[in-house]
């Protein structure tokens, strides 16, 4: 196990490149199960979620190879419906996509309940409602979901909650079902369009991905294809926030600016100079930032996954800001850690109230989840002195080569092995 150390307080400058989107990657990889010949996915991020999914595909008989570190070739021909009750599936949220993909191909699957960031309750009732509507029998036995269907038949499914995972999972299960499936109140995130694009290239018939009604006409066979993943809008957004917090001119490369309009608008409201190009966003040096209120919403609203990094930035803004997370009830675990770094923040229900500006101080802190980790990295770069972050394994789930990328902008970050004593302290905390 490792910790991340940051010598903060220095301005960052230069160009930083965004990797492929985690939340696309973790759905595209299971989607390859549905094909009858090899699929190539180009531009995958080097993150642990991708590595775990690779080994899960191998566990069910897939042949998975990498070309140029970021292009994955999956040969799904010898895959079988092997039960995957827990173990690795608990290490990430998106293992739930194995349910939809394996149900779609084999008409049966046994998959452990997913893990992922602890952000409050994260039920999968809408996924199950969708599978059942398509004709599957679904039971939960000792922490694993058992799915079985004699035949999958298209259905009209209204999602009671707008859910990224349920929308994609139902698409995966429905593309080979008999007849027409209509998903109403679907989520509209760009990653849904990316998955629909891969499935369409494989031969699926999907209309309306990216709107709140998705229509799928089932097909019998899906074939291999080449697909290039979209850039990670959350990684790009993290770099935009970082540029506003400690940048002296940061150019973010390989980004789709349209995916980040809500963040761009909020940063501009704070006084951050931003220029957007076709595939790049430039964040100018920011001075005298103003506090702004933020409410997280489903896409195209302000993403919950950027809420935690954004609160770190708000510590340097003048005034009082209210940050409300309407998606998750427990996404404020980073706040206690920011307080250790001298932030002035209180949490009231689903809102955090941040008063600024304050000068953050380096401290020993713990990342409780992926974006809490991103928030603490930004706070560490803003701080005077050294910051030590444990819980680095959460950050590794979603940020590809973060240390190298930030050091390329002039930051001083490094990883160190935890001592035996530190590991014991961590286990008992
Ligand atoms: C792997 C992946 O893509 N993760 C993203 C995905 O997570 P995930 O797919 O888990 O998030 P959802 O969009 O499903 O969840 C949104 C909200 O709906 C609720 N809900 C969801 C499903 C369900 O069956 N029942 C239910 O009540 C959740 O508890 C949450 O409050 O979208 C989230 C919201 O943008 C992001 O934070 C995650 O980064
Ligand atoms: C919550 C997140 O991820 P996951 O859904 O994979 O836990 C995230 O990416 O911020």
UniProtKB/TrEMBL annotation:
<feature type="domain" description="Enolpyruvate transferase">
    <location>
        <begin position="8"/>
        <end position="406"/>
    </location>
</feature>
<feature type="modified residue" description="2-(S-cysteinyl)pyruvic acid O-phosphothioketal">
    <location>
        <position position="117"/>
    </location>
</feature>
<feature type="binding site">
    <location>
        <position position="305"/>
    </location>
    <ligand>
        <name>UDP-N-acetyl-alpha-D-glucosamine</name>
    </ligand>
</feature>
<keyword id="KW-0132">Cell division</keyword>
<keyword id="KW-0133">Cell shape</keyword>
<feature type="binding site">
    <location>
        <position position="93"/>
    </location>
    <ligand>
        <name>UDP-N-acetyl-alpha-D-glucosamine</name>
    </ligand>
</feature>
<keyword id="KW-0963">Cytoplasm</keyword>
<dbReference type="InterPro" id="IPR013792">
    <property type="entry name" value="RNA3'P_cycl/enolpyr_Trfase_a/b"/>
</dbReference>
<comment type="similarity">
    <text>Belongs to the EPSP synthase family. MurA subfamily.</text>
</comment>
<feature type="binding site">
    <location>
        <begin position="122"/>
        <end position="126"/>
    </location>
    <ligand>
        <name>UDP-N-acetyl-alpha-D-glucosamine</name>
    </ligand>
</feature>
<keyword id="KW-0131">Cell cycle</keyword>
<feature type="binding site">
    <location>
        <begin position="22"/>
        <end position="23"/>
    </location>
    <ligand>
        <name>phosphoenolpyruvate</name>
    </ligand>
</feature>
<dbReference type="InterPro" id="IPR050068">
    <property type="entry name" value="MurA_subfamily"/>
</dbReference>
<protein>
    <recommendedName>
        <fullName>UDP-N-acetylglucosamine 1-carboxyvinyltransferase</fullName>
        <ecNumber>2.5.1.7</ecNumber>
    </recommendedName>
</protein>
<keyword id="KW-0808">Transferase</keyword>
<keyword id="KW-0573">Peptidoglycan synthesis</keyword>
<dbReference type="GO" id="GO:0008760">
    <property type="term" value="F:UDP-N-acetylglucosamine 1-carboxyvinyltransferase activity"/>
</dbReference>
<dbReference type="Pfam" id="PF00275">
    <property type="entry name" value="EPSP_synthase"/>
</dbReference>
<feature type="binding site">
    <location>
        <position position="327"/>
    </location>
    <ligand>
        <name>UDP-N-acetyl-alpha-D-glucosamine</name>
    </ligand>
</feature>
<dbReference type="InterPro" id="IPR005750">
    <property type="entry name" value="UDP_GlcNAc_COvinyl_MurA"/>
</dbReference>
<comment type="function">
    <text>Cell wall formation. Adds enolpyruvyl to UDP-N-acetylglucosamine.</text>
</comment>
<feature type="active site" description="Proton donor">
    <location>
        <position position="117"/>
    </location>
</feature>
<dbReference type="InterPro" id="IPR036968">
    <property type="entry name" value="Enolpyruvate_Tfrase_sf"/>
</dbReference>
<keyword id="KW-0961">Cell wall biogenesis/degradation</keyword>
<dbReference type="InterPro" id="IPR001986">
    <property type="entry name" value="Enolpyruvate_Tfrase_dom"/>
</dbReference>
<keyword id="KW-0670">Pyruvate</keyword>
<comment type="pathway">
    <text>Cell wall biogenesis; peptidoglycan biosynthesis.</text>
</comment>
């Amino acid at each position: 196990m490792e910790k991340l150390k940051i010598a903060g307080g220095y301005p960052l400058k230069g160009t930083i490149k965004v990797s492929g989107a985690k939340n696309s990657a973790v759905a595209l990889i299971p989607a390859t199960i549905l094909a009858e010949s090899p699929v190539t996915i180009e531009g995958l991020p080097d993150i642990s979620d991708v590595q775990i999914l690779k080994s899960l595909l191998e566990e069910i008989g897939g042949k998975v190879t990498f070309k140029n570190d970021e292009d994955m070739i999956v040969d799904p021909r010898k895959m079988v419906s092997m039960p995957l009750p827990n173990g690795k599936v608990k290490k990430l949220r998106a293992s739930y996509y194995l349910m939809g993909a394996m149900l779609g191909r084999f008409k049966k699957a046994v998959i452990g309940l997913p893990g992922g960031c602890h952000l409050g309750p994260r039920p999968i009732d809408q996924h199950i409602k969708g599978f059942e509507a398509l004709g599957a029998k679904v039971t939960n036995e000792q922490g694993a979901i058992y799915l079985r269907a004699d035949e999958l038949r298209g259905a009209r499914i209204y999602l009671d909650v707008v859910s990224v995972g349920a929308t994609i999972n139902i698409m995966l299960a429905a593309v080979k079902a008999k007849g027409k499936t209509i998903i109403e109140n679907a989520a509209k995130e760009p990653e849904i369009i990316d998955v629909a694009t891969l499935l369409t290239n494989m031969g699926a018939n999907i209309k309306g991905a990216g709107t709140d009604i998705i229509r799928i006409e089932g097909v019998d066979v899906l074939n291999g294809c080449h697909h290039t993943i979209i850039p990670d809008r959350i990684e790009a957004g993290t770099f935009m926030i970082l540029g506003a917090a400690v940048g002296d001119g940061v150019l973010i490369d390989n980004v789709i600016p349209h995916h980040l309009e809500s963040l761009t608008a909020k940063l501009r409201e704070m006084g951050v100079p931003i220029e957007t190009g076709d595939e790049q966003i430039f964040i100018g040096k920011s001075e005298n930032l103003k506090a702004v209120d933020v409410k997280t919403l489903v896409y195209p609203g302000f993403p919950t996954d950027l809420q935690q990094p954004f609160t770190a930035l708000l510590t340097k803004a003048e005034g009082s800001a209210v940050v409300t997370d309407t998606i998750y009830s427990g996404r404020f675990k980073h706040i206690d850690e920011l307080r250790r770094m001298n932030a002035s923040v209180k949490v009231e229900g689903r809102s955090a109230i941040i008063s600024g500006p304050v000068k953050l101080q380096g401290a020993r802190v713990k990342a409780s989840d992926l974006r809490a980790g991103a928030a603490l990295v930004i706070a560490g770069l803003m701080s005077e002195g050294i910051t030590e972050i444990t819980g680095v394994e959460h950050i590794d789930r979603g940020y590809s080569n973060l240390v190298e990328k930030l050091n390329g902008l002039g930051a001083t970050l490094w990883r160190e092995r935890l001592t035996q004593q530190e590991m014991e302290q961590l286990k008992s905390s």
